[in-house]
């Protein structure tokens, strides 16, 4: 089954990591995995462009079916292999509603994180403003405090209830990225506990970004957020 699957991915990319976590959770190891380098521009290669004309990773293919959006790939895999591996969408309507809510709120968290981390990369130097940097950091801080409240209500183990779900698949890689870029553990105790707990989950350990293993020391860009 997994031999019919191909994943083109980049190390450290939260969207790529989401798909890899689901593949692990659904016991779909053995898929065709190809690690590409963002630094070398390999995500713009002909191989990627043939699957994903946006030139982005991940690029995922199952048989003749191509899914390049990480949320779409994760939801597809859970739907197609519902009875295999770990169940990632709860049956209880209330729990399922919460899962979808937190899952898609994760996109807002990811965007506010990107506004801070990638500001200098995305905005031309002549158009950068200290006030924008300050505002982006304040917006991210407000967002993180919201997630602190969410985790406090669920006792911190999972973002959407009592079990690991697609909400965690979607949100955890971004949380790990935040700490990789220097988020202060003391300032966000619930997120810290969540991160420390889930980073030991087998599917997450098995798919941990290899570049992070090679260089455990991250950056301190978020130390004052």
TrEMBL record:
<dbReference type="InterPro" id="IPR040079">
    <property type="entry name" value="Glutathione_S-Trfase"/>
</dbReference>
<dbReference type="InterPro" id="IPR036282">
    <property type="entry name" value="Glutathione-S-Trfase_C_sf"/>
</dbReference>
<dbReference type="InterPro" id="IPR010987">
    <property type="entry name" value="Glutathione-S-Trfase_C-like"/>
</dbReference>
<dbReference type="InterPro" id="IPR004046">
    <property type="entry name" value="GST_C"/>
</dbReference>
<feature type="domain" description="GST N-terminal">
    <location>
        <begin position="3"/>
        <end position="85"/>
    </location>
</feature>
<dbReference type="GO" id="GO:0006749">
    <property type="term" value="P:glutathione metabolic process"/>
</dbReference>
<feature type="domain" description="GST C-terminal">
    <location>
        <begin position="92"/>
        <end position="217"/>
    </location>
</feature>
<dbReference type="InterPro" id="IPR036249">
    <property type="entry name" value="Thioredoxin-like_sf"/>
</dbReference>
<dbReference type="Pfam" id="PF13409">
    <property type="entry name" value="GST_N_2"/>
</dbReference>
<dbReference type="InterPro" id="IPR004045">
    <property type="entry name" value="Glutathione_S-Trfase_N"/>
</dbReference>
<protein>
    <recommendedName>
        <fullName>Glutathione S-transferase</fullName>
    </recommendedName>
</protein>
<dbReference type="GO" id="GO:0016034">
    <property type="term" value="F:maleylacetoacetate isomerase activity"/>
</dbReference>
<dbReference type="GO" id="GO:0004364">
    <property type="term" value="F:glutathione transferase activity"/>
</dbReference>
<dbReference type="GO" id="GO:0006559">
    <property type="term" value="P:L-phenylalanine catabolic process"/>
</dbReference>
<dbReference type="GO" id="GO:0005739">
    <property type="term" value="C:mitochondrion"/>
</dbReference>
<dbReference type="Pfam" id="PF14497">
    <property type="entry name" value="GST_C_3"/>
</dbReference>
């Amino acid at each position: 089954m997994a031999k019919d699957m191909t994943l083109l991915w980049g190390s450290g990319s939260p969207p790529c990591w989401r798909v890899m976590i689901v593949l692990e959770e659904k016991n779909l190891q053995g898929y065709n995995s190809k690690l590409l380098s963002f630094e070398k521009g390999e995500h713009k290669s002909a191989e990627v462009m043939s699957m994903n004309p946006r030139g982005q990773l991940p690029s995922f293919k199952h048989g003749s079916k191509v899914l390049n959006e990480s949320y779409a790939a994760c939801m597809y895999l859970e739907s197609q292999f519902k009875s295999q591996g770990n169940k990632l969408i709860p049956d209880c309507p209330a729990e399922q509603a919460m899962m979808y809510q937190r899952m898609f709120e994760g996109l807002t968290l990811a965007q506010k994180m990107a506004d801070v981390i990638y500001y200098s990369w995305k905005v031309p130097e002549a158009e950068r403003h200290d006030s924008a940097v300050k505002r982006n950091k304040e917006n991210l801080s407000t967002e993180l405090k919201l997630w602190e409240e969410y985790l406090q209500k669920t006792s911190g183990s999972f973002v959407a209830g009592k079990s690991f779900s697609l909400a965690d698949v979607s949100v955890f890689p971004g949380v790990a990225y935040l700490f990789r870029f220097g988020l202060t553990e003391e300032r966000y105790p619930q997120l810290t506990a969540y991160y420390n707990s889930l980073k030991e989950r087998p599917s997450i350990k098995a798919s941990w970004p290899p570049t992070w293993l090679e260089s455990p020391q991250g950056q301190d860009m978020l130390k004052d957020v």
